[in-house]
Amino acid sequence: MSGFRVGMMDAVIAGRPSADTLTRVTYFSAVASRVDSFWVPDHLNALFPRTLWQPKYCGGAKILPSADAYLEPWTMLGHIAARNRIGRLRLGTSVTDTGRRNPAVTAQAAATLHLLTRGRAILGIGTGEREGNEPYGVEWSKPVARFEEAVATIRALWNSKGELVNRDSPYFPLRNALFDLPPYRGKWPPIWIAAHGPRMLRTVGRYGDGFFPASLQAPQEYANRLEAVRAAASDAGRDPKSIVPALWIPVVTGRSTTEIDEALESEIMKCWALNANDEFFARHGMQHPLGVGFTGGQDLLPHDWDEQTALSHIKGITPQLVRDTMLVGTPGQVLEQAAVWRDCGVRYLVVAHVSILQRSLRNGLASQRPFFKIIRELKRL
Q1: Average pLDDT of the residues in 166-190
Q2: Which pLDDT score is estimated for 175?
Q3: What is the DSSP-derived secondary structure letter of residue 252?
Q4: Of 353, 379, 375, 352, which is closest to residue 366 (Cα–Cα)?
Q5: Can you name the residues that pair with 81 across neighbouring β-strands?
Q6: Which of 43, 114, 196, 353 is catalytic?
Q7: Which residue, of 122, 141, 262, 344, has the greatest Cβ tally within 10 A?
Q8: Cα–Cα dist 68/50, whole Å
Q9: What does each C-alpha distance from 240 to 4, 204, 233, 243 come to in angstroms?
Q10: Are 85 and 117 in contact (CB under 8 A)?
């Protein structure tokens, strides 16, 4: 892949006056900005405590009644695909969940979208999070092992050429399983894997078409993990350079440094930092509020926290720590930060505009203009 590419992500949360109003606005803005792709998450609810979704903590709560009203991603992508004839953006999940989704169903959904979009689907995939599995009765003791088997199952079904598939697996055994959807012009959707730990990185090397972690790491860590992915690909007899080095990252911007500094004081912004692991906090000279050994967003369960408990967990989180999990600043500052990631190997940046999570609704809405300036300039990196 040559050049630097940019995708935009929407939260796909039910809004007003119709459920897809906010997503339609984001999608058409993405088309107008000429980004390369449009992405949606796979969540049943948000990764921050619902008790803080109040106007006094977040301006967005004035216009969005619930931050937990997530729309189902594959249904939403099919809906968007019908509008994608002109924009012709690639459409992807960031990322779909192998915990509560059977891989045969995921293989079907991604292959269907690939056919409907004439080869423009991307299957972003990961282990999922405890919050979207355990409360709903999905066993959560070995998410990485389950993930490995899920991806291997998807590949086995796609490569079956319509023949019956038999495959032993502790999670997804196949017994005369049939998968007969065709690939689009001989190609299946590329699989982009959200990976951080060593075992997941090896899985990217064996099965992935893209390395697609979140930004809760330092750029140099990304570079080191990309090397591990490429080494695993080489060991598996694959071309290491064929794996797209991608990154998902939130963006906070505004009309001035004062507005940006104020945004970082938001309680919801600080809650995002709880998704980092204890090692990330230790590098900032802090202990993770949820304890030593906390692994980060994968194990976060914030929905039963009362307001005071939530506030106590974020009390010591500094604006600098929040900054280090995102791209933050004026357009020029954000571009400088993005260039650091580029120099550490990133070639495809998928951004989520999260400035609306600050206390001031007015400043959050006004941040749209500098955000789209950033989008235009990122394409030139």
Answers
A1: 97
A2: 98
A3: E
A4: 353
A5: none
A6: 43
A7: 122
A8: 7
A9: 18, 10, 5, 6
A10: no
129 is catalytic: yes
What domain count does the chain have? 1
- CATH code at position 108: 3.20.20.30
Query: Is the four-CA dihedral 35, 322, 223, 233 of positive or negative sign?
Result: negative
Question: Is 47 in contact with 70 (CB distance < 8 Å)?
Answer: no
Considering the candidates 72, 79, 114, 129, report the single residue annotated as catalytic.
129
Task: Report yes or no on 316 lying in a domain.
Answer: no
Q: Pick the closest to residue 22 from 30, 13, 31 (CA basis).
A: 13
Domain of residue 359, residue span? 5-256+327-379
Q: What is the CA radius of gyration of the chain?
A: 20
pLDDT in tens, 167-177: 999 999 999 99
Q: Give the CA distances from residue 202 to residues 148, 243, 298, in Å, rounded to whole numbers and listed in that order.
A: 10, 12, 19
In a domain, 284, yes or no: no
In a domain, 287, yes or no: no
Distances 316 to 16, 108, 266, 319, 327 between C-alpha atoms, Å:
35, 45, 13, 10, 21
51 phi and psi angles, rounded to 5 deg? -70, -15
Residue 112 belongs to some domain of the structure: yes
Dist CA 139 CA 135 (whole Å) = 9
Q: What is the mean pLDDT of residues 288-313?
A: 96
If you search the block for the tokens 């299957």, which residue do you land on?
Answer: 123
What six digits make up the tokens of 11? 């939260």
Give the pLDDT confidence score for residue 237 in this predicted structure.
97
